[in-house]
């Protein structure tokens, strides 16, 4: 399907003002696609997905809330000669395969069958039988100029962010997600970002995807925040990572003696709070805090911190290799 | 291990309760405590009575207790809603340690009423007011005590 641009004699609804923005102030809601910067009137399209890139990172613009960036199109690109850009046939094809990377028309794409411009009609039939506004075509170019860089930055940032969150939180058996982000320069990856982001969320180890009732879209800031905090919690709620099993096994076992007792001369495991009699075998951490072996192991298997002073036993092992760095004379710090 | 330690802690606190704090078990369930805390003197919460719910997970002390205000409170670190969720350092997963006791948690809540931590707020607007308009904050907090915590 081909879409033609009107020529320089255009006299559309936006004529007389800068032809880059649909007017959201006159009762018609305008929807804006953050992925490809496309915009359209909401009453022309029921679904909140972009008719251009099928992206679903879209926002409804109201007079009081306009997320659209200030005009980014260099003037020369709005000259009539450049406005003959067309929907490339492969683009229409790609719309049927939303998971594939879409190749958008570029400046180098030659018009395939130039046709005379429509006159006096503000709307043109677009892909999927929808109508697109008079300012549609330059957006392919606009995307090339500002959108591509922005999307590559966004993709890189999102990838780094997800990797950062998931790196520490991943458990054996959790699928690695990094590979799903594979944007290549020179291609337009907007659809891939949306799909892969959702894919990653759907496949999170403990089902964070359940948050989004419809797993291919979040429509509000709150929903996005919820997903972000879910991801953060996934990493954060676990606290510090576990100690190495070998470090735990290497901890010395000692029989409790009087020097190891607390100030009151009383021995108590500060994990289970049970009294510990002199002569009972206890495990002693490098910080000289001691515990029942089972109590300490259970905690260290979850978090590499001393249950009393939070010093990591892994850290202490490394520090202990340095002569004189171990804590001599610090007995008596029993919990 | 959990029940034994909790029972021990409950006995300690019941025997010598810290000033302004009372605890009781919810339906004899050692994992669910009802806490009644008096607004600390010198704070805008003075004169108020705050009911809190303390839940001790089965994994306690390997997992931190969960504490929430049942009495609505105007405070930067407590959600100003019916949930009354709170943000307190000692209970955060990254700082919880098994040697922390329930008594310490309750005393930390008292401290938080005396001295909110606006930089770790759950209610940003209240935190802003606390930072930028202390008299206004105290007035609002006192009004809220009259409304909800009497």
For the biggest sheet of chain A, the summary is: 3 strands, antiparallel
> What overall geometry of chain A do the principal axes of the alpha carbons give?
rod-shaped
Q: Low-confidence segments of chain A, ≥5 residues, pLDDT <50?
A: 1-19, 71-147, 168-192, 205-215, 319-335
Q: State Rg of chain A.
A: 31 Å
Query: How do the strands line up in the largest sheet of chain A?
Result: 2-1-3
Terminal CA distance of chain B: 38 Å
- Helix percent of chain A reads 25-40%
CATH topology of chain B: Ubiquitin Conjugating Enzyme
Shape of chain B: globular
Strand content of chain A: 5-15%
**Mind telling me the CATH class of chain B?**
Alpha Beta
Keywords (chain B): ATP-binding, Nucleotide-binding, Transferase, Ubl conjugation pathway
Protein name (chain B): E2 ubiquitin-conjugating enzyme
Domain UBC core (chain B): 1-150
GO molecular function (chain B): ATP binding; ubiquitin conjugating enzyme activity
Polypeptide structure, described:
Chain B: GO terms for molecular function: ATP binding; ubiquitin conjugating enzyme activity. Chain B: Residues 1-150 form the UBC core domain. The complex is a heterodimer of chains A (335) and B (150). Chain A has helices spanning 89-95, 138-169, 190-202, 221-236, 245-249, 293-300, 313-320, and strands spanning 30-33, 39-41, 58-61, 124-125, 131-132, 253-255, 281-284, 290-291. Chain A is rod-shaped, with a radius of gyration of 31 Å. The model of chain A is unreliable at 1-19, 71-147, 168-192, 205-215 and 319-335 (pLDDT under 50). Chain A contains seven helices and eight strands. Chain A has three domains: 30-141, no CATH class; 143-236, no CATH class; 245-320, 2-Layer Sandwich (Herpes Virus-1). Chain B has a single domain (2-148), classed as Ubiquitin Conjugating Enzyme. In chain B, a hairpin with a 2-residue loop joins strand 1 and strand 2 (29-38). In chain B, helix 3 (124-132) crosses helix 4. The interface between A and B is medium-sized, with 20 and 14 residues.
